[in-house]
Amino acid sequence: MRPPRAYENPEFMYSEHARSLRILAEYYYPLHRFDELGVTDTVVFFGSARIPAPEKRQKPNPHSRINEFDTFYDAAREVSRRLTSWNLETAVPKGRSFLVCTGGGPGIMEASNRGAYDAGGQSIGLNIELPKEQFPNPFISDELNFDFHYFFTRKFWFLYYARALIAFPGGYGTLDELFETLTLQQTMNIRNRVPVFLYGKRFWERLIDFDFLVEYGLISPQDRDLFQTVDTVQEAMDAMIPVLEKQL
Q1: Got the DSSP string for 1-67?
Q2: Which residue range forms the structural domain that includes residue 118?
Q3: Tens digits of per-residue pLDDT, 42-98?
Q4: Cα 113 to Cα 101: distance, rounded to the nearest angstrom
Q5: What pLDDT, in 10s, does the model give residues 182-216?
Q6: Is residue 63 part of a domain?
């Protein structure tokens, strides 16, 4: 009996020695799919997995302020819906297509994929294996639904085709992804400038005092220009669409 080929041997492929092959697979498989489907431009949506859909909202919890953020799900869904409608009506006829791209899970990610679905458009989900919270939401386009083991390969695909990014309130994961994006642009280690929009002025101003960082010389005054804060769906659209239109 012939032994299995190396790439057909699960024992080897899931071993420490084949880790580099698994990493390469998480680079080349999305590249193959995106190339096959003609994906070249995305608008990335970040945000908490813990902000539920309206139909899943529970009674207010007096020990948590998460209930204050319920409206962010609706806002993310509506921004994505309007953006996808604009894409189908304006960008696609001109030969470009800006697809909504999320982390693929519940909460704000679900809302964003759902908005694209509402508008009849495709959207991308870049899922990650986590012990809890993360599972693919049902609104991702089947052919653009990915599952990653390595965070850094997933982050690469968040930004490789990104033409704009909007971050809704979130926790460690959202902040990690947001600040990596800002750092890459601050240090000019990313080829394309990715305009960043922070949704929810009250949340972001309380969470991070950027002026304090400038005052102490920890960031430069011009680093404040790496992002823009928006507070309503209309403000978000008014800020994002002109940025995308310049790329048509």
Answers
A1: -PPPPGGG-HHHHTSGGGHHHHHHHHHHHHHHHHHHHT--EEEEEE--SSS--GGG--S--TT-SGG
A2: 40-245
A3: 999 999 998 988 877 666 666 666 666 678 999 999 999 999 999 999 999 999 999
A4: 8
A5: 999 999 998 889 999 999 999 999 999 999 999 99
A6: yes
For the full predicted model, state whether its pTM sits above 0.85: yes
Is residue 34 a part of any domain in this protein?
A: no
Contact 123, 100 (CB under 8 A): yes
Helix (H, G, I), strand (E, B) or coil at 145: strand
CATH number at residue 193: 3.40.50.450
SS3 129: coil
Cβ(7)–Cβ(13) below 8 Å = yes
Q: Is residue 172 part of a domain?
A: yes
Q: Any residues with CB less than 8 A from the CB of 51 and at least 6 apart, and which?
A: 66, 69, 70, 72, 73, 107, 108, 111, 168, 169
Beta strands (DSSP E) in 141-217 are 145-148, 162-167, 196-199
Structural domain contains residue 8: no
Q: Per the structure block, which two tokens stand in for 121? A: 């458009």
Return left, alpha or beta for 223; rule: phi > 0 is left, psi -120 to 50 is alpha, else beta: alpha
Q: For 23, left (φ over 0), alpha (ψ -120 to 50), or beta? A: alpha
**Number of domains present in the structure of the chain:** 1
Orientation of helix 70-86 relative to helix 233-245, angle to 10°: 30
Residue 78 near residue 108, CB atoms below 8 Å: no
Q: Report the distance separating Cα 8 and Cα 11, nearest Å.
A: 9
| Cα separation, 104 vs 223, whole angstroms | 29
